[in-house]
């Protein structure tokens, strides 16, 4: 047994979720275990006291690599217990998810201090943890900054989506940009729901993303980017040749933003995954994207559902996707989309197709 799944949102545990005292017993039993590598305790009743027990497990068990504590009720005190365990010499945990816990500013700042000394973590999810400006700055400072010496050199993926930012301000954007400019290990970054607007994206691209050489996946979903961000997205996609995945879902890019991205697709063979769902893209933008698909055989995932698709867009997508399906054998790869097209009485129609990201297989370099 290498994987122990006790997630409370599963069918078998939905009505009998793991309680704090059960977490104590479980952690005690696993302290000397050498087989379990993956522990999932998400969506249960794990509180600060139970988090302390998990912290003890992290200190005692040197074989466990992945712990998921997302969707629980761990607060600042529990975050501090976990941070102390992860700061201890010899820590071997590689991935930790705390998404959806009320860690607050103090809890995230404790996580930031931990990142300065931890050398084992490769992935960290602290999205939707009720963090504000101070916590975001603390995390960014721990991951890189001008003149900083005690910064993290091992973390490869972090999600800091959905902070509590009441109004538009540039402080967090500048902190993220400075971090990206100096960080040399981060490969995946989640910045969803940061309330980013067009001028802040320009700041992020100019002072951060274009100065970074390692990032391959960027999540900008559910921000406030409009069609005016088109030129910055064009710069990002064409000049950042390491970027393979870009999530722009639930913004307001419209036709202008879609046309800018469509113009870059044929000349950006490194970009293989693009998410443009729910972006108020109209006929012109969707037609431009459909026409670009024929020249973008490198694209492996394109998500477009949630945009208004009229007759012209439906016809263009139907023709492009049908042509791509016929040419799969010669193109060397398959494009996965969330759309399926068909004809009724000579009129093209589009319907939603449920897709799984695991279906996508990128070509080897």
- Beta content comes to 5-15%
Cross-sheet strand order for the largest sheet: 1-2-3-4-5-6-7-8-9-10-11-12
Distance between the termini: 34 Å
What shape does the CA trace take?
globular
The whole-angstrom Rg is 22 Å
Task: Give the helix level as a range of percent.
Answer: 25-40%
The helix/strand class is: alpha/beta
Which regions are unreliable across 5 or more consecutive residues at pLDDT < 50?
A: none
Instruction: Please state the average pLDDT score.
Output: 93
> Helices and strands, in N-to-C order?
EHEHEHEHEHEHEHEHEHEHEHHEEE
Total strands: the figure is 14
Q: Main β-sheet: number of strands, strand sense, barrel status? A: 12 strands, parallel
Annotation field: number of helices: 12
Descriptive account of the structure:
This protein has 365 residues and is of the alpha/beta class. The chain has 12 helices and 14 strands. It has a 12-stranded parallel β-sheet, with no helix packed on it. A two-stranded antiparallel sheet has the order 13-14. Strand 1, helix 1 and strand 2 form a beta-alpha-beta unit. Helix 2 packs parallel to helix 3 and helix 4 packs parallel to helix 5. The longest helix is centred in the C-terminal third of the chain and has 16 residues. The radius of gyration is 22 Å and the shape is globular. The mean pLDDT is 93.
């Amino acid at each position: 047994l290498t994987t122990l799944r006790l997630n409370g949102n599963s069918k078998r545990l939905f009505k009998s979720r793991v309680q704090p005292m059960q977490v104590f017993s479980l952690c005690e039993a696993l302290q000397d275990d050498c087989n379990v590598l993956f522990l999932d305790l998400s969506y249960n009743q794990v509180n600060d006291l139970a988090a302390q027990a998990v912290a003890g497990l992290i200190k005692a068990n040197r074989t466990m690599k992945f712990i998921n504590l997302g969707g629980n009720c761990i607060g600042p005190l529990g975050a501090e217990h976990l941070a102390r365990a992860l700061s201890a010499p010899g820590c071997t945990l590689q991935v930790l998810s705390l998404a959806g816990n009320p860690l607050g500013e103090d809890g995230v700042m404790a996580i930031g201090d931990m990142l300065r000394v931890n050398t084992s973590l490769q992935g960290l999810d602290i999205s939707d943890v009720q963090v504000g400006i101070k916590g975001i700055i603390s995390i960014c400072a721990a991951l890189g900054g001008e003149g900083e010496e005690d910064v993290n050199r091992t973390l490869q993926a972090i999600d800091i989506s959905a902070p509590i930012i009441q109004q538009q301000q540039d402080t967090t954007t500048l902190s993220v940009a400075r971090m990206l400019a100096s960080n040399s290990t981060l490969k995946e970054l989640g910045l969803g729901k940061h309330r980013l607007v067009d001028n802040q994206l320009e700041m992020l691209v100019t002072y951060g993303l274009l100065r970074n050489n390692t990032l391959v996946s960027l999540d900008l979903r559910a921000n406030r980017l409009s069609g005016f961000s088109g030129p910055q997205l064009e710069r990002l996609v064409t000049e950042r040749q390491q970027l393979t995945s870009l999530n722009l879902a639930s913004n307001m890019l419209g036709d202008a933003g879609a046309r800018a991205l469509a113009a870059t697709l044929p000349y950006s063979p490194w970009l293989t995954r693009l998410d443009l769902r729910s972006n108020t893209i109209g006929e012109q933008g969707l037609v431009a994207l459909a026409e670009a698909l024929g020249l973008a055989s490198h694209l492996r995932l394109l998500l477009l559902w949630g945009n208004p698709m009229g007759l012209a867009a439906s016809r263009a997508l139907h023709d492009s996707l049908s042509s791509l399906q016929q040419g799969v054998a010669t193109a060397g790869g398959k494009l996965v989309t969330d759309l399926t097209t068909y004809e009724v009485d000579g009129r093209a129609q589009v319907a939603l197709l449920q897709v799984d990201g695991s279906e996508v297989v990128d070509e080897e370099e």
